């Protein structure tokens, strides 16, 4: 398919979510180029793979700075513009970890729970702007480089074994379902294959069973982690 996009239709900016002082200027640059922002997709973040008892608190600070504070900082500047226009979509890639808990990801889960709480609350503050949509996307395991770039027990250490990713949802399918969710203004979308999707439903509707199951699954997961798998 031949694209109809020209050079003026594309602008790529380097952006550091942790450099919050740069977010206003970046937003202004985009507005100067395009004249408006229709959709903001918050898709920056890092996961974690370490046990809490072994993990330096600096790691938790870094996760919150990047995944949570960086996201809401950028959102703040873009939302100011959308409120002026009374129109826009703010799409945030949260995670199924935003609605459940899992071992080896205490800080990551916490940051995603924070995003869920923030955007669900923000939505209630925007009732006077019915054409501004707050959309939370909660993917399960998806093929990406997220594992190669996870936080570990200290900031200087990288993961040694990223494992097999073939069982995870293909990246293009997750992207397509995210676009479908955005086009239809879904407040929240769980994008995952089974059995992970079934666990989401358990966690939502039968939490006592979910806690029991996660304790069983978590024990095996921790054993595999300690064995280097």
From TrEMBL:
Transmembrane segments: none annotated. GO terms for molecular function: oxidoreductase activity. Keywords: Oxidoreductase. The keyword Transferase does not apply. InterPro entries: NAD(P)-bd_dom_sf, Sc_DH/Rdtase_CS, SDR_fam, SDR_family_member_7. Belongs to the short-chain dehydrogenases/reductases (SDR) family. This is DHRS7 reductase. It comes from Scytalopus superciliaris. The gene is Dhrs7.
């Amino acid at each position: 398919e031949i694209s109809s996009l020209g050079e003026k239709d594309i602008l790529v900016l380097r952006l550091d979510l942790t450099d919050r002082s740069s977010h206003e200027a970046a937003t202004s640059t985009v507005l100067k180029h395009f004249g408006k922002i229709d959709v903001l997709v918050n898709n920056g973040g890092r996961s974690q793979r370490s046990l809490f008892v072994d993990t330096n608190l600096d790691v938790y600070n870094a996760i919150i700075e990047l995944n949570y504070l960086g996201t809401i900082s950028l959102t703040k500047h873009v939302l100011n513009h959308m409120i002026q226009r009374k129109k826009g979509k703010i799409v945030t890639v949260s995670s199924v970890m935003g609605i459940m808990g899992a071992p080896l990801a205490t800080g990551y889960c916490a940051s995603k729970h924070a995003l869920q709480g923030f955007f669900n609350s923000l939505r209630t503050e925007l009732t006077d702007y019915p054409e501004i949509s707050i959309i939370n996307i909660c993917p399960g395991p998806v093929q990406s480089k997220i594992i190669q770039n996870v936080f570990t027990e200290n900031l200087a250490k990288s993961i040694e074994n990223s494992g097999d990713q073939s069982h995870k949802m293909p990246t293009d399918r997750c992207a397509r379902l995210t676009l479908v969710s955005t086009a239809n203004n879904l407040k929240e979308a769980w994008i995952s294959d089974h059995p992970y999707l079934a666990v989401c439903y358990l966690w939502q509707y039968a939490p006592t069973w979910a806690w029991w199951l996660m304790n069983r699954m978590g024990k095996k997961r921790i054993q595999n982690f300690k064995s280097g798998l």
